[in-house]
Amino acid sequence: MQKEEFIYWAKRVYEADLNPSTSGNMSVRLPDNTILITSSGSSHGDLCDDEIIKIDMQGNIIEGDKKPSSEKFMHINIYKKRDDINAVIHSHSPYITAFAVADKKIDEVIMPEFAFHFGSVPTAKYYMPSSDNLANAVAKYFQDYNAVLMQNHGIVQGGKTLKECFYALEALQAYCRTYIYAKILGNVKSLNKKEIKEIDKLKG
Predict the structure, then answer these.
(1) Fewest C-beta atoms under 10 Å: which of 10, 28, 152, 154?
(2) Contact (Cβ atoms closer than 8 angstroms) between residue 44 and residue 11
(3) What is the dihedral of CA 85, 90, 93, 99, to 10 degrees?
(4) pLDDT per residue over 147-201, tens digit each?
(5) Ramachandran sector of residue 119 (left: φ over 0; alpha: ψ -120 to 50; beta: rest)
(6) What is the DSSP secondary structure assignment for residue 65, as one 8-state letter?
(7) pLDDT for 19-52, tens place per residue?
């Protein structure tokens, strides 16, 4: 992957309000098993070449003069857990993070798209950001899931590419916005088990 493509998706993330200000981070694993990751304190909205740091699977800097994201070991642990994941976006979307702050599970099937693409999103226990405990707790869930909510923190989405991660997060953000608006209107109606089973058949 070229840095230009990395920057393109970083800007898409920012414009979609998935990472306001300087929040969040993202990375890709390259074919040689090195990682491109955003630098600490950088903004996805105006990310520059020198704010994309290349590190190895131990977290050591290979290329770049800036400090890589403090969440680098969370990304590394996810890559070690799953060979099929080669991109990770850690998002602080206000709509998604609201569920993490409210300790509200993202598991009610209110739209067919959610049942088809997610089913449910697990929540990792709160640990200090950038800590080994957080990195390990999040990576553990990637054994069975592609997205993990973090209590009082945000969400981590993995995928084959940054494009796949972006669209998954955008879809999940739309779900969360819809859920919140429905709550404001006074009622959330979920699909029943029969309706969900019919949707599952489409995955075939």
Answers:
(1) 152
(2) yes
(3) 80
(4) 999 999 999 999 999 999 999 999 999 999 999 999 999 988 888 888 878 877 7
(5) left
(6) S
(7) 999 999 999 999 999 999 999 999 999 999 999 9
pTM score of the predicted model: 0.93
Which residue from 173, 145, 170, 172 is spatially nearest to 159, judged by alpha carbons?
145
* Among 93, 54, 95, residue whose Cα is nearest residue 180: 95
Amino acid at 52: I
Separation between Cα atoms, residue 129 and residue 126, nearest integer Å: 9
Name the residue among 125, 118, 19, 37 with its Cα closest to residue 75. 37
**Please, is 147 exposed, middle or buried when counting C-beta atoms within 10 Å of its C-beta (0-12, 13-18, 19+)?**
buried
Closest CA to 54 of 27, 31, 77: 27
Q: Which amino acid appears at position 37 of this protein? A: I
Q: Can you say how many angstroms the Cα of residue 1 is from the centroid of all Cα atoms in its chain? A: 19
Give 27's strand partners: 37, 88
Q: Is 51 a catalytic residue?
A: no
Which member of 71, 164, 195, 198 is catalytic? 71
Dist. CA 76–CA 28, nearest whole Å? 10
